Amino acid sequence: MTTQQLIDQIKIKKSFLCVGLDVDLNKIPKHLLELEDPIFEFNKAIIDATHDLTVSYKPNTAFYEAYGIKGWISLQKTINYINEKHPEIFTIADAKRGDIGNTSSMYAKAFFEDLSFDSVTVAPYMGKDSVEPFLAFENKHTIMLALTSNEGAFDFQTLNVDGKELYKQVLGTSKTWKNSENLMYVVGATKAEYFTEIRKIVPHSFLLVPGVGAQGGSLSEVCKYGMNDNVGLLINSSRGIIYASNGTDFAEVARAEALKMQQEMEEIISLKFKV
Amino acid sequence: MTTQQLIDQIKIKKSFLCVGLDVDLNKIPKHLLELEDPIFEFNKAIIDATHDLTVSYKPNTAFYEAYGIKGWISLQKTINYINEKHPEIFTIADAKRGDIGNTSSMYAKAFFEDLSFDSVTVAPYMGKDSVEPFLAFENKHTIMLALTSNEGAFDFQTLNVDGKELYKQVLGTSKTWKNSENLMYVVGATKAEYFTEIRKIVPHSFLLVPGVGAQGGSLSEVCKYGMNDNVGLLINSSRGIIYASNGTDFAEVARAEALKMQQEMEEIISLKFKV
């Protein structure tokens, strides 16, 4: 998917919501556990109930790997289902990978070719040659961790490096890499005041924003400081939507939660762009 | 496996070699491609030929994920084969994972419980709560990236943070985390002169050292500056051993290469410890 196609979808759906498919067998409705592939059935129901309200789905690979081969099969079925039924949806493999060059190429092949995701999240610690192999794929997107939403973000990401926080150094340096136009960045909503500074470094890039809702971040604050002329934000919600109910009505309740967020987003878009 | 059991094995085998099982279908002998699971058959042959010369095997997960579900099955069969046939071998899932707390727990479950690896590599960028869930597993080991062997290591890892390079900050901070005695660190052999400084911060920890051989690092230099009283090093070699031949004699030639390294290690151990 091209960036323009993503922007078009945001305008059509009046939504920049990303639904995180972080499926934990201990949290999904009990009645699904009797089915052959509870994880896929859960995802399928969530997708069927929310696809018109969201522009993106983001399975976190950890939740699938935890169930071994079965989990990997559920992941494959989930991405295939999205790509077949809703090819307009921007898919994110939240994998936070990164390794030396030839090894990163294997990861890129895994997520972009074998699984056909539109994008994958990567970690920056190993530098340029660990990220560039991902950037080489046309119309695929590499979403690099910049400033994450967790407490540990303050351990290293905000350390002062020659007068500038490390995450700013990461943002700035990444712009010099080959095919850097294929980069997006993870910036946590819990740090809304940081968005002003971040937008000075990467004004045009899409930012994937976790941490709204469950982790305490505010949608309006993030939009105030982080939005650009193409919206430029994907706001992720996982637990707040998919686990809003663990009864037989889970998909319906998930839809209601997604709708609330979409309506808030529609209002923000209409105020900002006067549409 | 306990750290003491690993040390005992190093003494028994007079080896601190780790063989990297980074299996690329384009590089393995052609005759294996006709078999049902070429990746597992390749690993099995390498393991059968080298298990008495090495104390550790390290499959890099990227090479398995690149083949999707099939690859994940090959990884499962490989780790099961090692654990059943050679339970004395220290196994490393080279996965370089790391995510927010509850998600890192899922990764830990995947590698320590579902796949039964002794250890897993992790990336430090997301800080304390992204690593501690791995450290909570008893007799399991978490090998954190400190200073990697690739060129990109100089992009961020060696940046000056308050008068100290970032990787030193990472080493120092990690020692304050809960169950930090379960930490080991990745330090590239291509930077042998850095080992002196690193040993001042983590004198007792095991260091997993990639980059000897193919990437140009010197075994004797690494040992000179990096060895501690328990050896404290695992020297990884992947391509130099497993792809030494791509003919039908590949396992035999891999053994010959592993033997060369083991003999060099035996000499270093006997000089250092006068045994």
Count structural domains of chain A. 1
Give the amount of beta strand of chain A, in percent. Answer: 15-25%
Using the CA coordinates, give the radius of gyration of chain A: 18 Å
Shape, principal axes of CA atoms of chain A: globular
> Quick one: which chains have the greatest interface?
A-B, 57 and 57 residues
Could you describe the largest sheet of chain A, including whether it forms a barrel? 8 strands, parallel, barrel
Name the quaternary structure.
homodimer
The helix tally of chain A amounts to: 12
Distance between the termini of chain A: 25 Å
> Could you report the average pLDDT of chain A, rounded to the nearest whole number?
96
Catalogue the unreliable spans of chain A. Answer: none
**Within the largest sheet of chain A, what's the order of strands?**
1-2-3-4-5-8-9-10
- Tell me what the CATH architecture of chain A is: Alpha-Beta Barrel
* Extended strand count of chain A: 10
Structural class of chain A: alpha/beta
CATH superfamily of chain A: Aldolase class I
How is the CATH topology of chain A named? TIM Barrel
User: Helical proportion of chain A?
Assistant: 40-55%
CATH class of chain A: Alpha Beta
H/E element sequence of chain A: HEHEHHEHEHEHEEHEHEHEHH
Structure in words:
The structure is a homodimer of 275-residue chains. Chain A is an alpha/beta fold and 275 residues long. Chain A has a single domain (3-273), classed as TIM Barrel (Alpha-Beta Barrel), CATH 3.20.20.70. Helices cover 45% and strands 16% of the residues of chain A. Chain A has 12 helices and 10 strands. Chain A has helices at 3-13, 38-50, 62-65, 68-85, 101-114, 128-135, 153-156, 166-174, 195-201, 219-226, 239-242, 250-273, and strands spanning 17-21, 56-59, 90-97, 119-122, 141-147, 160-161, 164-165, 183-187, 207-209, 233-237. Chain A has an 8-stranded parallel beta barrel, surrounded by 6 helices. In chain A, α5 (101-114) links the parallel β3 and β4. Chain A is globular. The interface between A and B is large, with 57 and 57 residues.
